[in-house]
Amino acid sequence: MADRTVIALGGNAISPAGTAGTAAEQTDNIWRTMRQVAALVEHGLTELILTHGNGPQVGNVLIKNELAKHVVPPVPLDWCVAQTQATIGFTIASTLSHELAVRGVTQPVVPVVSRVLVAADDPGFTAPSKPIGPYLTDADEVAEREAEGQHFARQGERGWRRVVASPEPLVSVDRAAVELLLDDGAIVVANGGGGIPVVTDGDGPLRGIEAVIDKDLAGARLAEELSAVSFVILTDVPAVAVGYGTSDQRWLGAVTVDELRGLQRDGHFSVGSMGPKVEAVCRFVERTGGRAAIASLDDAVAAAEGTAGTQVRVGR
Ligand code: ADP
Ligand code: MG
């Protein structure tokens, strides 16, 4: 367990902005990312867990739901997450296995369809705020879908977007399976898209629920549960910035978790993007004493080795 590392891959690892997102494009992007991951393994990383986002992919399933709802029943959000875990997981497994084989590594890669427990009374369910799916510009369509029970929020000039709960990840339900696979030498893909949100229903089976869990928070939770020593978030900026997008912008290198919390309190990190990443790395470092990083996908190896991006530790 000496080097057990959880790596969270952002949207541009799979479907960068400006691409149509065909299956072939997504496969090529994942393949490119997996070359980096394979390089990490080649450098000697032995215990690796990957997690990934799924926003655009779930968005596509939701569009199909709406277009086809008079022909086949729409599937709930937990099913959408499960479907995207499968397609992304299978593509990661295929491309990473190939890249490992090219390097003479025989570790199996196993995607786990994984559930994450949330509280049925999480405040997110009474005030849904996480925007998902396409922008809508037709007020009649919004009204029709609100009548069907969906919630919408105005997003400025661009129209309305469906909003859902983004509850706190409490427990990675399939953690024990992940652990068995790691113990047997596998590289595991888990909690993809934040995990399939489930709640307990008394005596019955765990039940999927309409929500999406933040993938960085779910990744941090899993890293904590697995006693990982390192948690790395790879995204499309080189590091965390203070004064992001202003003339005073400054990239953060090595910081203590207390310093990062201070900047978070000062409001440097946007709610829908860098905010949850900063929260996720702070939680991991505070709860485990381990090391976390937020870095560019292009610097994956250096980020995991502790020399690129924003590196977060308890102390200096
Ligand atoms: P991913 O899809 O990789 O999970 P997001 O798109 O949600 O990531 O978040 C990454 C984005 O956060 C960056 O592209 C950047 O535009 C934005 N961002 C907002 N605030 C900051 C900040 N303080 N420092 C760096 N990036 C920031
Ligand atoms: Mg993104």
Polypeptide structure, described:
By secondary structure, the protein is an alpha/beta fold. It has one domain (5-228): Acetylglutamate kinase-like (Carbamate kinase), CATH 3.40.1160. It has nine helices and 17 strands. It has helices at residues 23-42, 55-67, 77-102, 139-147, 175-183, 215-225, 257-265, 274-288, 300-305; strands at residues 5-9, 48-52, 109-111, 115-117, 130-136, 151-154, 160-164, 171-172, 187-189, 196-199, 207-208, 230-235, 241-242, 250-251, 254-256, 291-296, 310-313. The strands form four sheets. It has an eight-stranded mixed β-sheet with strand order 3-9-2-1-12-16-17-15, with helices on both faces. Helix 1 (23-42) packs across helix 3 (77-102), helix 6 packs parallel to helix 8 (274-288) and helix 7 runs antiparallel to helix 8 (274-288). The relative contact order is 0.16. The structure holds adenosine-5'-diphosphate and magnesium ion.
